[in-house]
Design goal:
The chain is mostly helical. The chain has one domain: Arc Repressor Mutant, subunit A. It is built from 6 helices and 3 strands, in the order H-H-H-E-H-H-E-E-H. Strands 1-3-2 form a 3-stranded antiparallel β-sheet. Helix 3 crosses helix 4 and helix 4 crosses helix 5. The longest helix is centred in the last third of the chain and has 15 residues.
Length: about 120
């Protein structure tokens, strides 16, 4: 005979609302991926890079000048942002230009900065 798993919402003050919230939770893989993405954005230099790219597509040299970092440090941060699919490269000859990967990233950065400015 198997043990019965208790309903965690049974002891809740508002069991219907708690059950609805529990069903809306993303799966563990989605939570892990979203957490990694937010950690990637949660670095001041990377957030500055993403903010600059929200305004314009830029090459590594120009990005480094805009955010006040070395080209090496900028390239390193861009590799991390690429790994998390936050930026996308475009190569023209020997120059690589970067842009935000998609509208989701644009909204994420815009909303985070607008939220931070609301006090």
């Amino acid at each position: 005979m198997s043990a019965r798993v208790p309903d965690p919402c049974a002891a809740c003050t508002h069991p219907d609302a708690a059950a609805q919230a529990r069903q809306a939770l993303p799966d563990d893989t989605c939570v892990a991926d979203a957490t990694a993405l937010l950690k990637a954005v949660a670095d001041p230099t990377r957030l500055r890079l993403l903010s600059a790219l929200a305004a314009a597509e830029l090459c590594v040299h120009d990005l480094a000048l805009v955010v006040g970092a070395s080209e090496s440090a900028t390239s390193h941060q861009l590799r991390l942002l690429r790994a998390h699919r936050l930026v996308a490269p475009r190569k023209v000859g020997r120059t690589v230009y970067y842009r935000l990967a998609d509208q989701h990233v644009t909204l994420l950065i815009r909303n985070a900065l607008e939220h931070a400015q609301e006090r």
